[in-house]
Amino acid sequence: MYDPTIFENLKVAFENHIYDLDNIEGKIDIKNRVDQMDLSVIARTFKIEFALVDHSDITAEIILDASLEDLAGEILEIANKNIGCTLALKFFKNIQNPDLQCEEIEQAIKDVWEDEIELTQTLSFVFGTELSSYTNAIEVKFKQKINEDQIRDIAMFLEHVLETLHMFKKI
What pTM, to 2 d.p., does this model score? Predict the structure, then answer.
């Protein structure tokens, strides 16, 4: 019998919780969904992007990745390997005052998320247009890999994502 990988189990668990937030609870609107198999490096990626129902201009994207090493280590049952998936978040928000707002965003992230993260904010704008705002891509990478042991934590994780989106509305 086929035994799903850690990646597949986590992907389905995330999908179930996120679609419940959209379809049943009506808290979010799903904007995009990507489920990729990269054959050049034999890796899997799952992304799902959503926004709060009442504030669609700020989005969150959950990114789940499994490398060849993770997939092969699990399938081949290689002992003493740190097998699992990497997890990251990306938030997209337009800002007008980067010096002030980027600091506020960093503080909001630190207030919600643990210290075991890497935070990057990347600002961009469309060349040739009047510069009135920047798009801030806020990336939060979690240093520890996750596996099925964290499936029960997904609901709380998503509550933190929603809390972050609510905080970003005020910035």
Answer: 0.93
Q: How far is CA 124 from the centre of its chain?
A: 20
Residue 28: exposure state from Cβ atoms within 10 A (0-12, 13-18, ≥19)? buried
Structure tokens at 94: 């337009």
10-50 pLDDT, tens digit per residue, is 999 999 999 999 999 999 999 999 999 999 999 999 999 99
Q: In the sheet that 134-142 helps form, which strands lie side by side, from edge to edge?
A: 28-38, 43-52, 55-66, 86-95, 134-142, 117-124
Residues 6+ apart with CB under 8 A from 11: 35, 46, 64
